[in-house]
């Protein structure tokens, strides 16, 4: 171009007019500018008409400053002329920046939520100091009653000593001390009775705490209940409902603690009490006196009749008229001694002349101390004489207090762990007062004095026990004998908002080290970090949620990039003529690039500022809500990371989206750019490239980079994540793969998009509207390149939303199935220690009382037999003992499958030849068959009867001595085990229901030796799933799958183990013929309410006296999983609104360009008779066809991806697949999409349809 050489470093003064301007008159340009009023006008902006052009190029500097000034002037004039596109761009950037800022800022606050949930679950204690139990029996030569060294074995913590050490450390180190507070705590298991209705009773945990110290320590920040006074208590709401009481209305309860809970609290062994002898005093005090015939303690003159006084060494006639005055004279409670009771007590010695001590013994054989001494309570179950909750038939003695109910506790509020269940709160100072007063009154009772003096005589003590106890109580402080001590971390809020990878683990290590420094590294104290452990359990959930939010940010950013890309491309297409004129006037390429970049920044910078401003205001709401929930100071303001991230997205997205428009603007020749009738959609491009200069094409490069990236991630990053347990990185990779699948399918779907559009068009256009179909199909084809971006946005957003919504709905169902299948029924009771089995008799009696009303059925099971100290393992194999696999051995009741969720009972093979009962879902009840068809199974290799093979040899076993192998072989075959086994054994051990099994039990016969005992086994069934147990058909999980047998076989195995062991003196003897129960499942009646389940759960807790036995409300647990899903569904509804707004703008831009491009055709058609309404419907039908097709493709992609992922998870869990569709989310997305389509197509078409035909043709 001739004029291009006349540019210089200074100003440009043309000597002759530029050659390209020769054929373009200013008059025509002015006419075109004045006549073009629509968005498709191809005119110069005001900045380049008249004086502005002369001023711009007469002083045209080639410097960057000059180019920038020129670009800014041009953009200012263009923006003033056409504000719509600029506003759309600014709104898009502002929306994305706002959403990313608020979302990321609250993701960074989310640890506060998890921290609070951990506090509500574990209590607001960062560290819990509990004593290690080192109790031992008396050493030879030591008194069994008074053993000063036993104080070292009492499981208590001296809080006073720890506090002194802590205060010295804090004074020395000041604010650098990590421990901010320490407080004592006592957790005692007791009984609660309705004082006015004593039959209403329940067990509960008594939380004894120092209200003033805990208030100062900040424990229970959100526990809105006042401090307790004398004889006042706060009680859990479910417990009050069980007792039939209410709060703040003067109701009173009786709190009772057993002696085994009180005596360790009082440190009785350190003052000379031997617990075994003391138990004899409590349970049979008069019998203890009778066991010491040499005792002749004067009790004072007691009127036995008118003329006689006696002491314990006298011989008198005892009858009802003489025994009652004697016992009453001792200060005993004789109200329990009715004439009927006395007749039974006196028996054959009634009215005979016998020694006083012998007669007292005869009476005391049936009376405990609590029957005779006022102030003591009989804690032997729900009523006097019942079996104790632990299954022991002896009477439990304790103290009882009358308390007033103040508040009902709806939620722990972090004051104590939520898992405690029924809780009664008591102030430690008030509790100490009433406890000591009652104990002083107790030891002043004459009968207790007699018993203690008898103990002194038996033990050969020289110091009176009463004096020792009195001196001990004078200096007694509960804080010296704390059951637990809670310590809090000084920088706890700062620490807990971190993840474990960011340093929380390190901070907790320093914190624990400082505590050990206070108590001594060799002290018998265990330190637990309950909140940290609870947070560790939620780490995967937090990482998973982070990936969800990151995915949303990615999709929103992608959609905004597509929108800005469409906006910039639309601007380039509309201003092709203007850009051509600028180039014709001499604007260089880099100046045009700079202009387009500045145009993108004109969207980005205001959008970022507006987005930040709105985000700061809107963020105040979630900041306040999170602060209220976590009960912490509100963290207002935006953190740096969200600002940097949103700034990067706000700048990079417009600049990247500007790449293709810049290439489009620079690729047009001046001839095409200045051709006002040229249309991009109709152009034909011929490009000739020599093969030798072709090189590597762009798509090949992209494909090569993609393959290399996939290989790197697969062979390096994934193994790296597994090796270093970096679950965050692993989830990021998996999440990226899933998003790649969704995006890839969305792009592939564009191939099918035209056919889907035609199908919807054919279904929508009927009757007279069919005349419009050819025109609409022509528009769909002609607008394909422009509408493709709109279709891709709709498809991607819908695919992602449906995928996410379906995935969470499907995973919710999967989690519910896992919970229900593992626990087995509506309510489950599980023991987690062999030493603490269920009280079968008491639980069975209670459930039998509710059977048919609240309870439909219940069934017992056992723990794995290898948890017993008598057993080492149980093993299943073929009869030749190879291959073999160790498996846990359990026993179940006959009605197990009548009680459990039969949905999770999936048999794969059932033994033939039996008349099975049927379960509720019509399957063979193999559990019942274990009992009804016991010992009658015949394998196909057996004849009509069981035949025992001849022994191959006999001899001496070094482990067991001489053994009659023939008899043992006979027993192994004739008394075989009927079993239910997992399908995993088919591949692992090559077994089926018609193959004999070898069940091997290994017994611990000594501390260093074991012996094997084999029994023939016959499988009644092989199962893939079994309710109440973890069962899998995969051979890899075979060691974790149970072997299920009958109770009698289980009990026989335990008895045999006990008879063989040499450790009988150290182990309890199993009850003959009884299998100890370790599990219980309960199925509630149809229509049972939450209150009904609560009643049964609390009722069963009455018979549970250990925290290693848990009662689980499975129905309530399953309900709680729905809360998180509902919150996530609400989140995705908000995301769908945002994506719909972005789709609306891109649809609006596309159809605005379509209308402007086809305005001349529309004008001609209207001139030929097409009405404005019909022309409007052409665009609406086109938009609906486009959107509905995208919706279908997006929905299919989302569902296919979610179903594929869920099926993959189902392969591991083997849970039945249940299709779950996010109906609410789908309906919201459909309504928003159709609304966006109608409005986005109607608005652009409305502007042209309202004009006269002549004006439309003139402006086209």
UniProtKB/TrEMBL annotation:
Keywords: Cell membrane, Membrane, Transmembrane, Transmembrane helix. Residues 1-49 are annotated as: Disordered. It is found in: Cell membrane. Signal peptide: none annotated. Residues 1-13, 32-47 have a biased composition (Low complexity). Residues 551-668, 1133-1252 form the ABC3 transporter permease C-terminal domain. InterPro entries: ABC3_permease_C. The chain crosses the membrane at residues 86-103, 548-570, 591-624, 644-662, 696-718, 730-752, 791-809, 1128-1151, 1188-1211, 1217-1243. It is a multi-pass membrane protein. Its main location: membrane. One of its GO terms (cellular component) is plasma membrane. The keyword Cell membrane applies. It holds the Pfam family FtsX. This is ABC3 transporter permease C-terminal domain-containing protein. It comes from Thecamonas trahens ATCC 50062.
């Amino acid at each position: 171009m001739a004029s291009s050489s006349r540019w210089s470093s200074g100003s440009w003064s043309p000597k002759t007019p530029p050659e390209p301007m020769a054929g373009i008159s200013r008059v025509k340009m002015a006419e075109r500018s004045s006549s073009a009023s629509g968005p498709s006008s191809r005119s110069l902006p005001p900045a380049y008409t008249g004086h502005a052009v002369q001023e711009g190029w007469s002083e045209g500097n080639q410097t960057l400053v000059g180019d920038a000034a020129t670009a800014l002037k041009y953009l200012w004039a263009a923006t003033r002329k056409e504000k719509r596109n600029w506003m759309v761009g600014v709104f898009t950037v502002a929306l994305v920046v706002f959403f990313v800022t608020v979302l990321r800022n609250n993701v960074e606050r989310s640890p506060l939520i998890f921290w609070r949930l951990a506090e509500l679950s574990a209590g607001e204690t960062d560290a819990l100091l509990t004593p290690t139990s080192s109790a031992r029996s008396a050493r030879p030569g030591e008194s069994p009653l008074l053993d000063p060294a036993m104080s070292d074995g009492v499981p208590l913590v001296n809080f006073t000593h720890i506090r002194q050490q802590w205060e010295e450390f804090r004074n020395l180190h000041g604010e650098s001390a990590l421990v901010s507070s320490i407080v004592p705590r006592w957790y005692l298991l007791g009984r609660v009775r309705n004082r006015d209705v004593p039959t209403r009773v329940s067990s509960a945990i008594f939380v004894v705490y120092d209200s003033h110290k805990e208030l100062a320590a900040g424990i229970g920040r959100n526990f809105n209940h006042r401090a307790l006074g004398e004889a006042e208590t706060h009680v859990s709401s479910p417990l009050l409902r069980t007792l039939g009481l209410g709060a703040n209305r003067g109701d009173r309860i009786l709190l009772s603690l057993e002696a085994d809970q009180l005596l360790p609290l009082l440190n009785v062994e350190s003052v000379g009490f031997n617990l075994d002898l003391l138990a004899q005093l409590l349970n049979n005090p008069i019998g203890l006196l009778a066991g010491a015939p040499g005792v002749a303690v004067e009790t004072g003159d007691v009127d036995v009749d008118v003329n006689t006084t006696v002491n314990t060494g006298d011989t008198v006639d005892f009858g009802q008229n003489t025994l009652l005055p004697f016992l009453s004279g001792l200060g005993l409670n004789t109200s329990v001694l009715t004439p009927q009771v006395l007749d039974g007590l006196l028996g054959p010695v009634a009215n005979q002349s016998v020694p006083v001590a012998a007669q007292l013994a005869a009476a005391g054989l049936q009376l405990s101390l609590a029957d005779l001494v006022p102030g003591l309570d009989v804690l032997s179950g729900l009523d006097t004489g019942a079996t104790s909750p632990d299954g022991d038939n002896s009477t439990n003695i304790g103290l009882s207090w009358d308390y007033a109910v103040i508040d009902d506790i709806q939620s722990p509020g972090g004051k104590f762990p939520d898992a405690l269940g029924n809780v009664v709160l008591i102030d430690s100072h008030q509790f100490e007062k009433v406890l000591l007063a009652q104990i002083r009154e107790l030891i002043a009772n004459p009968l207790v004095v007699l018993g203690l003096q008898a103990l002194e005589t038996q033990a050969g003590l020289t110091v009176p026990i009463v004096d020792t106890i009195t001196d001990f109580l004078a200096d007694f402080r509960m804080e010296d004998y704390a059951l637990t001590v809670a310590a809090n971390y000084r920088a706890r809020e700062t620490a807990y908002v971190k993840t474990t990878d960011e340093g929380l683990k390190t901070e907790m290590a320093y914190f624990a080290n400082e505590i050990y420094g206070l108590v001594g590294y060799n002290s018998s104290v265990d330190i637990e970090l309950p909140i940290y452990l609870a947070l560790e359990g939620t780490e995967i959930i937090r990482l998973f949620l982070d990936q969800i939010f990151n995915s949303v940010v990615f999709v929103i950013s992608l959609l905004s990039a597509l929108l800005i890309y469409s906006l910039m491309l639309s601007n380039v297409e509309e201003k092709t003529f203007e850009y051509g004129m600028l180039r014709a006037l001499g604007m260089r390429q880099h100046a045009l690039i700079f202009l387009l970049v500045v145009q993108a920044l004109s969207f980005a910078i205001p959008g970022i500022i507006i987005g930040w401003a709105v985000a700061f205001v809107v963020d105040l709401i979630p900041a306040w809500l999170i602060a209220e929930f976590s009960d912490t100071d509100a963290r207002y303001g935006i953190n740096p990371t969200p600002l940097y991230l949103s700034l990067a997205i706000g700048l990079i997205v417009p600049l990247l989206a500007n790449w293709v428009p810049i290439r489009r603007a620079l690729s047009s020749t001046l001839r095409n750019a200045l051709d006002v009738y040229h249309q991009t959609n109709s152009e034909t491009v011929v490009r000739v490239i020599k093969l030798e200069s072709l090189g590597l094409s762009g798509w090949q490069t992209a494909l090569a980079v993609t393959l290399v990236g996939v290989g790197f991630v697969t062979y390096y990053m994934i193994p790296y994540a597994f090796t270093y347990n970096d679950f965050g990185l692993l989830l990021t990779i998996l999440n990226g793969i899933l998003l790649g699948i969704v995006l890839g399918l969305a792009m592939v779907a564009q191939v099918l998009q035209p056919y889907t559009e035609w199908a919807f068009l054919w279904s929508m256009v009927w009757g007279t509207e069919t005349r419009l179909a050819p025109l609409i199909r022509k528009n769909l084809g002609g607008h394909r390149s422009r509408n493709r971006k709109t279709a891709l946005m709709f498809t991607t957003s819908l695919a992602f939303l449906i995928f996410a919504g379906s995935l969470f709905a499907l995973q919710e169902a999967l989690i519910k199935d896992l919970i229900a299948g593992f626990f087995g029924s509506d309510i489950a009771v599980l023991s987690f220690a062999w030493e603490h089995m269920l009280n079968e008799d008491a639980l069975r009696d209670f459930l039998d009382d509710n059977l048919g009303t609240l309870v439909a059925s219940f069934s017992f099971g056992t723990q794995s037999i290898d948890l017993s100290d008598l057993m080492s393992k149980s093993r299943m194999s073929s009869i030749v003992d190879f291959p073999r696999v160790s498996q846990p051995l359990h026993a179940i009741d006959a009605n197990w499958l009548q009680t459990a969720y039969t949905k999770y009972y999936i048999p794969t093979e059932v033994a033939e030849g039996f008349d099975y009962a049927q379960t509720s879902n019509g399957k063979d009840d193999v559990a019942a068959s274990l009992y009804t068809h016991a010992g009658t199974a015949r394998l196909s290799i057996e004849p009509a009867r069981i035949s025992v093979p001849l022994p191959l040899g006999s001899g001496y076993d070094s482990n067991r001595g001489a053994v009659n192998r023939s008899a043992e072989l006979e027993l192994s075959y004739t008394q075989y085990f009927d079993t239910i086994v997992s399908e995993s054994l088919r591949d692992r051990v090559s077994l089926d229901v018609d193959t004999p099994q070898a069940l091997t039990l290994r017994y611990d016969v000594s501390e260093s030796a074991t012996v094997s005992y084999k029994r023939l086994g016959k499988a009644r069934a092989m199962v893939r799933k079994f309710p109440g147990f973890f069962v899998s058909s995969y051979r890899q999980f075979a060691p974790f799958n149970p072997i299920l047998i009958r109770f009698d076989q289980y009990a026989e195995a335990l008895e045999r183990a006990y008879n063989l062991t040499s450790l009988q003196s150290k182990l309890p003897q199993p009850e003959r013929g009884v299998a100890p129960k370790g599990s219980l499942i309960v199925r509630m009646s149809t229509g049972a309410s939450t209150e009904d389940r609560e009643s049964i759960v609390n009722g069963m807790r009455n018979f549970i006296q250990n925290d290693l036995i848990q009662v689980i409300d499975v129905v309530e647990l399953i309900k709680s999983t729905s809360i998180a899903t509902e919150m996530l569904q609400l989140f995705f509804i908000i995301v769908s609104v945002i994506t719909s707004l972005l789709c609306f703008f891109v649809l609006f831009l596309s159809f605005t360009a379509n209308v402007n491009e086809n305005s001349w055709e529309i004008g001609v058609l209207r001139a030929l008779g097409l009405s404005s309404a019909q022309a409007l419907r052409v665009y609406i039908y086109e938009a609906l066809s486009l959107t509905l097709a995208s919706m279908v493709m997006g929905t299919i992609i989302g569902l296919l991806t979610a179903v594929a992922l869920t099926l993959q998870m189902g392969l591991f869990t083997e849970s039945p697949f249940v299709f779950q569709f996010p109906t609410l989310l789908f309906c919201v997305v459909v309504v928003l999409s159709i609304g966006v389509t109608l409005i986005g197509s109607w608005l652009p078409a409305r502007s042209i349809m309202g004009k006269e035909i002549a004006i439309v043709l003139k402006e086209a």
